[in-house]
Specification:
Structural class: mainly alpha
Low-confidence stretches: 1-5, 119-124
Largest sheet: none
Number of helices: 3
Mean pLDDT: 82
Shape: rod-shaped
Radius of gyration: 23 Å
Distance between the termini: 41 Å
Number of domains: 1
Length: 124
């Protein structure tokens, strides 16, 4: 099973960088350039995390699509099925599809949260 490695949230990383670098004693011109660079970094980091979350959701969708093709076997099963392990296998398949759907939903919620963050930050 695939595991997603979560990176630090963009706002956390940007805020930590801003916090550490704001304590540096710089002249006005350097401070302005540093602030602009940090703002660009924040925008690029936001885009990277948005792309990553969308890629994760698409990956989960593809896994679900592959697994759904195996569900066609359910049409061949009758109430007289002698191999009862078939029921367990199909139940596990449904469980796996549900698990992948949960992970895709989490990725999309992350996308929603990440997309909303610049609006929150600009309104501060």
């Amino acid at each position: 099973m695939t595991r997603t490695v979560k990176s630090p949230r963009r706002s956390d990383l940007s805020l930590r960088l801003h916090r550490v670098l704001s304590s540096a004693e710089l002249d006005c011109e350097c401070r302005t350039k540093l602030d602009q660079a940090l703002d660009r970094f924040s925008v690029l980091e936001a885009r990277r995390q948005l792309r990553s979350a969308l890629k994760e959701a698409r990956h989960r969708r593809d896994l679900i699509a592959d697994q759904i093709s195996y569900l066609a076997d359910i049409d061949e099963i009758t109430e007289n099925e002698t191999d009862i392990s078939v029921f367990k296998e199909l139940a596990l398949l449904f469980d796996e599809i549900a698990d992948q759907a949960d992970k895709a939903a989490d990725a999309l919620r992350e996308l929603e949260t990440l997309s909303a963050q610049p609006l929150k930050r600009n309104s501060d």
